[in-house]
Every structure is written in structure tokens, then in C-alpha cells.
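Researcher: I'd like a candidate sequence for this fold, 165 residues long. If you have to choose between options at a position, lean toward the conservative one.
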């Protein structure tokens, strides 16, 4: 088993238990990328510039913790696996948004960039995390949202839907 149990795995404090699962920069960066639809080992490796063995260990841990699920797919006659968000992994969205807001406020990029924004896909305008679009007032579900990260792309990227099992 690649799951490493620590002294924090079953403490009464839920923040402590969550950090036991998530308190590693790679875990959160992998989950950030999975949130915008990244699925394949090679894509994570390239985007994160992470060593194969480190990525492999982190993906296994996230699968063991049931934040990602390993799903087979056929590629050129071979079976390969991709990594998709579970409902628990997808439920980190408010955490990602809180990290984005905190990072925007309290940290600085080496090269100044336009901030990350949340886009309501239906109306195409910026909104805030929440049940209703601040621009058009309509109810907003996960599938209605996209992340606009101008330093990466001028196009907003829709959020990945979790695998339903
Ligand atoms: Zn809207």
C-alpha cells in the first residue's frame, strides 16, 4: 500500500485529518489540474515538471484516499489509465477557490499577470464562488463554471465533472 498513515490520520480535528491527505504541494497541484480536466500521467508530468516516480506515488496516494479514480482507456490498441476526480476530489472546489483568493491577496508572481477569475459559462461573465451568478443572477452549478487563467490561455477552461460510481 502506498498510503502512508501518519499520526494525523485519525485525529479529532477535521482540518488535521484533511491536511493528512492534502498537505503536500503535489497533491493540491495534481488536484488543481484534475479540476480543469487534466487526466493523463504524461499531461501531469509535463505541466508540473515532476519526476515520474514522485508523480506515480502521489497519484497512487490520491487514488487510495479516494480523491481520484483510475480509469482504463484504449490508446492505439493498448490499455492505459487516466485519473479522474471522484465526488470527494471535486468537492475540493471551494478549497481551490479559497486558495486562489488567498494567493491573490497575500502572494506575488515574479511576472505580474491578470488574476484568475471564475466565469459563468452560460452568460460568459465573471462571477464569484456561490450558488448564483453575480452578473446574471442565474443558479450556477459546477458544470456552468470555468476558470480563466490569463497567464495560461485567453480561453476559460470548463471544470471537470466527477466520475459517478
Ligand atoms: Zn451569469
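Model: Candidate sequence:
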Amino acid at each position: 500500500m502506498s498510503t502512508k498513515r501518519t499520526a494525523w490520520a485519525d485525529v479529532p480535528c477535521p482540518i488535521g485529518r484533511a491536511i493528512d491527505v492534502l498537505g503536500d504541494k503535489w497533491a493540491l497541484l495534481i488536484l488543481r489540474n484534475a479540476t480543469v480536466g487534466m487526466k493523463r500521467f504524461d499531461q501531469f508530468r509535463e505541466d508540473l515538471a515532476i519526476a515520474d516516480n514522485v508523480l506515480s506515488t502521489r497519484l497512487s496516494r490520491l487514488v487510495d484516499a479516494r480523491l481520484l479514480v483510475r480509469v482504463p482507456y484504449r490508446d492505439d490498441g493498448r490499455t492505459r489509465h487516466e485519473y479522474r476526480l471522484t465526488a470527494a476530489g471535486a468537492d475540493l472546489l471551494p478549497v481551490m477557490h479559497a486558495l486562489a483568493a488567498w494567493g491573490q491577496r497575500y502572494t506575488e508572481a515574479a511576472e505580474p499577470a491578470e488574476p484568475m477569475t471564475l466565469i459563468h459559462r452560460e452568460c460568459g461573465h465573471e462571477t464569484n464562488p456561490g450558488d448564483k451568478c453575480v452578473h446574471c443572477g442565474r443558479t450556477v452549478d459546477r458544470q456552468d463554471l470555468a476558470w480563466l487563467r490569463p497567464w495560461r490561455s485567453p480561453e476559460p477552461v470548463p471544470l471537470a465533472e466527477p466520475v459517478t460510481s
